[in-house]
Amino acid sequence: MAGDTKRRTGQLSAELRGFREVQRLAYACAETVAAQLRPGVTEREAARMQRDWLRERGVRDWFHLPFAWFGDRTAFANFKIPLQFFPTNRKLEPGMPFILDMAPVHQGYAADIGYSGSLGLNPVQDRLMSDLRHHRALILEQARERRSLREIYENVERLMTRQGYANRHRAYPFGVIAHKIDRVKERRWSPTAFGFGTQSLKGLAGDVLHGHREGWSPLWSPYRFSDHPPQPGLWAVEPHLGFRGTGAKFEEILVVTDSRDPEESAFWLDEELPHVRRWAEEKTA
Predict the structure, then answer these.
(1) The domain 7-284: what is its CATH number?
(2) Where's the Peptidase M24 domain (predicted)?
(3) Is the separation of the CB atoms in 279 and 130 below 8 Å?
(4) Tell me, what's the pLDDT at 257?
(5) Burial class (CB in 10 A: 0-12, 13-18, 19+), 75
(6) Dist. CA 191–CA 214, nearest whole Å
């Protein structure tokens, strides 16, 4: 991957362009659905809006089906079991924060994104989103330094603590902040199981077995099995902050290569995403 990625001239390999396009498609879906949310819309309705929008544009397979979380569920308040992640009949109210999360597969390329917003003003979530830019910078810097996934995870958590926030990605299965993504074989019939695409799960399971034999994991966690540098490939990274019942996160693809050039060894796939544009506007202001 490193050899055919020419970032200094603004060029990407055809494969990386495919991943970037599906990631942009997912973020376009999130922005469109967010603009259509109104008081009284439920999480289930918001998840269906995402699913319908993407299906109208050719998506037939998923890493996972769309999620939506409203209010204190954006901070995973009292989440104890995986079923609590699935959309509920919680209704959106004025000023309430929300997170839209989707992972479509399109033309064999996968993406997994998270979009945070609120129905009207929410100063707490605005602050969380502004502070997330420091996490994006830290993750990139330390991935380029070839620090272990576990160490980067711990340093992200320390930064959250210094900022006065709680680490809410600890509530995810295995406490992951990221997971590896790959190409997915296109099939006429793409079933899901427990909200996850079976083809994508099969690929992730294959990475788990392959990585176990070679001493690496496709799951970026605080545990010993993640005590190794980032494996070359694509990682969907999602630092998730929480503060008193309000949560915020982004999720996007980090590309890791085997290049000895630090700038080429790790980079964010796209610098034109909503949260990145937001931070650029804040810096200008």
Answers:
(1) 3.90.230.10
(2) 19-258
(3) yes
(4) 97
(5) buried
(6) 30
Q: What is the pLDDT of residue 212?
A: 64
What is the Cα–Cα distance from 129 to 214, expressed in whole angstroms? 37
Tell me which amino acid residue 108 is: G
Distance separating alpha carbons of residues 239 and 252, to the nearest angstrom: 10
Q: What residues have CB less than 8 Å from 183, skipping those under 6 apart?
A: 15, 108, 109, 110
Predicted pLDDT of residue 109: 97
Q: What is the C-alpha separation between 98 and 119, in angstroms, rounded?
A: 8
Determine the Cα angle at 246 with ends 242 and 249, to 5°: 55
* SS3 label, residue 107: coil
Cα separation, 229 vs 245, in Å, equals 33
Nearest to 177 by CA among 237, 128, 136, 231: 237
pLDDT mean for each 10 residues of the chain (285 residues): 41 92 98 98 98 97 96 95 94 98 96 98 98 98 98 98 97 94 83 74 73 85 96 98 98 97 96 97 88
Residue 20: which H helix or E strand, with range? helix 14-36
Q: Report how far residue 156's alpha carbon sits from residue 158's, in angstroms, rounded to the nearest whole number.
A: 5
Judged on CB neighbours under 10 Å (0-12, 13-18, 19+), 182 is middle
Number of H helices, E strands in the chain: 7, 14
The Cα 166–Cα 251 span in angstroms is 17
